[in-house]
Specification:
alpha/beta, 9 strands, globular
């Protein structure tokens, strides 16, 4: 396969900073393109030349094994040159501002910048200052768009049309960019979204996002098709949001007893890394008949390939139109 074998992407943005604002056709396009890479990634020869000659820079201000590794692997499989910037040893740690970083990156003429940052809005700020496409690898508690896309791809492959499903998102919604992106995507695609969490781990007025809120797992999980557990993000907690991990697991950890309230074939999801025995029981997490947690990891590479391909080809076409 070469890039000439593809149509012009049906995606109308230079960047991918979040799911909010994307249309159902745009989301479907990215999922369809992701689908095309799944079988390819299972072959012995995985290398393509779709992004040959293009440069992708991974700029991660936060550690993330899954996201950074899958973006790197996705770019390499598309034939791009990849640079992983070690932020901990970079000028950013020496006091360089994001604006200075953007100016430095512009001088390197990258084609795509993948950014993960601990502050909400930082990725958008960089996108406004650099001349290349930007993909968010997660920013603060704002959004994590490629995680929502890989979750949607995992669900769609198992259950088909997203619009007929009831999805429960459970746990630390307050600090979760994964939850926000999934809420936007699922609502846009017509699914019914429930949030299940203690009051201390829910944003105020979250109902305005078009979700149903529950504070009891048994009640909230009733007849759900998908159970999406969230990690307790203790590193973002400046106060005590629950008495103890043991008590949290008792009330909000996913066990077979609580899972019995869902539909018999309900799928179990988790963005990782998991806190076993805190938000999910080990046996439930490893139930290969219902857990699709490992599948989510595989879908992550395909989704990131689709996003890199889409923005890489779209911005190449625009650059050629601007050229004298």
């Amino acid at each position: 396969m070469t890039e000439n074998s593809y149509d012009i992407p049906s995606y109308l943005h230079r960047d991918l900073l979040g799911i909010e604002g994307l249309t159902p056709p745009e989301i479907s396009y990215l999922l369809d393109r992701s689908e095309s890479f799944i079988e390819h990634n299972r072959q012995a020869d995985k290398k393509l030349d779709i992004l040959h000659g293009r440069t992708v820079i991974n700029l991660f201000f936060e550690n993330s094994t899954r996201t950074s590794t899958s973006f790197e692997l996705a770019a390499l499989r598309l034939g791009a040159d990849v640079i992983n910037m070690a932020v901990a040893q970079s000028s950013v740690r020496k006091g360089e501002t994001l604006i200075d970083t953007a100016m430095t990156l512009n001088a390197m003429h990258p084609d795509i910048l993948v950014v993960r940052h601990s502050e909400s809005g930082a990725v958008k700020l960089l996108a406004e200052k650099v001349k290349c496409a930007v993909i968010s690898g997660g920013d603060g508690s704002h959004e994590h768009p490629t995680q929502a896309l890989l979750d949607a791809l995992t669900i769609r492959r198992r259950r088909g049309d997203l619009s007929a499903l009831t999805v429960a998102i459970c746990g630390d919604v307050l600090h979760s960019r994964v939850a926000r992106s999934n809420i936007h995507l699922l609502n846009t695609m017509g699914a019914r979204v429930r949030l299940i969490a203690p009051r201390t781990l829910l944003p105020s007025k979250i109902e305005a996002m078009g979700v149903e809120v529950f504070h009891d797992m048994v009640e909230g999980l009733k007849d759900c098709d998908i159970v999406m557990m969230l990690r307790l993000q203790k590193e973002r907690m400046a106060a005590n949001f629950f008495p103890s991990a043991r008590e949290y697991f008792h009330f909000f950890g996913l066990t077979y007893e609580k899972l019995a309230m869902t539909k018999p074939d309900a799928l179990i999801m988790h963005p990782g890394p998991m806190n076993r025995g805190v938000e999910i029981d080990t046996e439930v997490a490893d139930d290969y008949g219902r857990s699709v947690i490992r599948e989510q990891v595989e879908m992550g590479v395909a989704v990131r390939m689709a996003c890199l391909e889409t923005l890489g080809l779209r911005n190449k076409d625009e650059a050629q139109e601007r050229a004298p």
